[in-house]
Amino acid sequence: MKILGIDLSVIIIALMTAYIGYQFNHRAKKREVFLKELRHSYNEVYFPMFELLSVIIETEDKNHKMVLIDSFMQEFSGINSNIRFIGSSFILEYFYELRKAFFTYKNETNRTNEHELLEKVQGLYLSIEDEYWNAHDIIYEDHCQFVSDTFNNPFFVIFSNIFRIFYHLFVFVFWISSIILYFTIAHLIIPFEWVPDWWNIGIAFLLVILATMLFAIMMMFKEMMMKKNRRESKVMKSMKKKIKKIFSR
After folding, report:
1. What are the backbone dihedrals phi and psi of residue 79, each rounded to the nearest 5 degrees, phi first?
2. What is the pLDDT of residue 92?
3. Cβ(217)–Cβ(169) under 8 Å?
C-alpha cells in the first residue's frame, strides 16, 4: 500500500523513528532543566535551611532555641526570601503554617503557642532533611561511579562500558518489541499489506516476553554493578540503635 507514491512501511518506520527520537530528546532536555532547578534549590534554600534547622533542633537551651527560631524566620520571610525555590508544594505550604504559628506565638507568648511552634519546627526539619538528602543524592548520583571508573582496574572499566552499551540496547529492544506488539494488535483490526503472512500475535507476544526477560536480567546486573551514592536509611539507623541498646544492657 502506498500513500502519495511512498510505501506505507517506510512512512511508519519514519514516524516511529521520529517519535522515539523526540521522546529521548524531550526527556534529556527535561532532565537538564530539572537538574538545573534542583541545584539552584539545593544551594539557595535546602542546604542553608537544613543547617539552621539542625542547629535549632540540637540546641537544648529553650531561650536560645527561641532566639534561633526568631533568626530563622527573619532569614526566610519576606518578598526576597529563597523559600520560593522550594520545589515541594507540601513543604512550602508547611512553612507558611510554621510562619503563622510563629506570629501567633509572638503575639501571645504562652506554653500552648510555644509547644505548637516547636512542633511545627520539628516537622519542617524532618521534611527539609529528606528534601536536602534526596537532592544531594540526585545531583551526585554519578559521583561514586566516576570515582570507581577512575581508580578501578582498566579491564573492569572496559567491561562496565560494554555492559552499558548492551543495557541501552536491550532498553531499545524492549520498547521496539512493545511497539511491534501494538501494531500487531492493530493489524488484527485493520490488516496491513506490508505485514508478512507468517507473522501473528503469538510471535509478537513471545518477542515482548523475551525482550522483557532480557531487560530484567540487564536490570539485575545493573543494580549489582552500579556504585550508588546513598545514605543509610532511617530504618537501618533506628534498628542499629535498638540493637545497640539491647546488647549494652
Report:
1. -70, -20
2. 92
3. no
